[in-house]
């Protein structure tokens, strides 16, 4: 696959034209206040997995609307004190999977919290969290569920779940709330950016090939799903483009990035047609904290850096946590 986006020198200077809603902060303050009216009720049930070097807990906590959200907490065995903690969010269509699929961070001495994604987990990895909220007519997938109103949009619930997942992770006695990082790939990277903009005291933020960034460009520069779901919705619902764009602006990673208060490590791939590099650089260039870096994989598609980026993140987070 050939390079299709802006040249790298232009990417490094690229800024999004995504308009920020005037009430962006008020919208998210209200959303999180409503979520916190429900007790977090984080429950951690030990799981027998056959793994000898880690202990796994099956987690349930109250997310958006007080709805139960699942997760895994994995910690090294025989730990003596609060551990630096990595909270991870999952890529599009996937769920929290099975405990033995998440061993990297606990093997390195961290506590590792994986959030299930409501309504997903029936494609490439299994999930266990339903989304009890319906929506108006939508194109198949998750991108257009409730997309004509920010109050009802699907990612309002997911991003709120992400904030509550950090709160749940910090509620366990083996985690150190003062040393908490968030990370994720693709959709998980988009949730990472949102949580990084909504929680002010994170230690580090590490989104890889993040999705849900710079919607005005993403929905016109690539015809790959999931962004194409929005175009297909508008193909059927003619005349609603402006309303949809107004909704998406409340969920654009660029605007969350402008509120990022922690060091950040991004990654992108220049042949990535799923999350085009210009949309990733839009969020990176908007990231507010002065300590930030981006790993660029010139000849990779949406797999990005894969295990190579995991190694980079492991070194980077070890130095910060």
Automatic annotation (TrEMBL):
Pfam families: AXE1
Binding residues for substrate: 92
Gene Ontology MF term list: carboxylic ester hydrolase activity
Active-site residues, Swiss-Prot/TrEMBL: 186, 272, 302
Domain Acetyl xylan esterase: start-end pairs: 1-319
Gene3D superfamilies: alpha/beta hydrolase (3.40.50.1820)
A GO BP entry: polysaccharide metabolic process
InterPro entries: AB_hydrolase_fold (IPR029058), AXE1_dom (IPR008391), CE7 (IPR039069)
Protein name per its UniProtKB record: Acetyl xylan esterase
Organism: Streptomyces nodosus
